[in-house]
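Structure (tokenized):
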């Protein structure tokens, strides 16, 4: 069943520059405090959805051209929401719950921790302070960051698709590729991400197969309120 669902998702989302990776809710809940648990049984089938560099041309621009008059909030969020909601139509016999990376609970906690989900699904390695043996940062707060084996930091985690009626007790967990494997590189990655993230150098910590186009870099470097203009939209 899991394979059939995965194939259906890949055929629907792959051509849009979106990647899906399967995981069991239990893998995610096992590494987090109860306050962050997803409220489903451990064997519930879930997928984390990533946007790759090609999503900008394959999904966002066509969506903006088609839905120009209906775009009222962040165009990327709206585009991803549109396509993930349409996925439900592919599975009329299944309940499909969708969670987006920008959604918050009433407590102001995020609905899910995107980087943890990507890590347990084997999609991207979540490098954190604990992955560095000789920590040079003292009392500074250091945030972790996911690195994709193919795209480095040139990708984003967009959402989760959960299938509450599908239990997959025998799904095997695949570890994410540890592509930043030396201590020096990990320190460099976390330094760049925490203290120089605006210049985007952390994204190229490994040799990447594809990165954002210049147009896409400009788009994401522009303050959200001004991005409408870049896409030819009035706000």
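Design, position by position:
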């Amino acid at each position: 069943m899991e394979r059939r669902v995965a194939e259906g998702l890949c055929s629907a989302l792959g051509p849009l520059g979106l990647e899906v990776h399967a995981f069991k809710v239990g893998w995610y809940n096992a590494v987090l405090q109860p306050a962050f648990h997803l409220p489903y049984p451990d064997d519930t089938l879930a997928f984390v959805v990533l946007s790759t560099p090609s999503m900008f041309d394959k999904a966002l621009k066509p969506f903006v051209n088609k839905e120009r008059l209906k775009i009222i909030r962040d165009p990327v969020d709206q585009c991803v929401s549109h396509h993930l909601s349409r996925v439900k139509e592919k599975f009329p016999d299944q309940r499909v719950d969708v969670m987006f990376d920008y959604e918050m609970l009433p407590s102001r906690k995020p609905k899910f921790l995107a980087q943890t989900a990507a890590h347990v699904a084997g999609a991207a390695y979540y490098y954190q302070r604990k992955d560095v043996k000789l920590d040079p940062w003292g009392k500074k707060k250091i945030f972790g960051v996911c690195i994709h084996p193919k795209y480095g930091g040139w990708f984003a985690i967009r959402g989760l698709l959960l299938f509450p009626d599908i239990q997959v007790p025998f799904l095997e967990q695949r570890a994410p590729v540890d592509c930043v494997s030396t201590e020096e590189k990990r320190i460099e990655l976390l330094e760049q991400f925490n203290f120089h993230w605006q210049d985007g150098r952390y994204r190229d910590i490994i040799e990447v197969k594809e990165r954002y186009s210049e147009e896409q870099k400009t788009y994401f470097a522009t303050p959200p309120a001004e991005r409408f203009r870049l896409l030819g939209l009035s706000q």
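Reviewer-requested clarification: The chain has one domain: 1-231. Helices lie at 2-13, 25-30, 55-67, 75-90, 114-120, 183-195, 214-221, 224-230.
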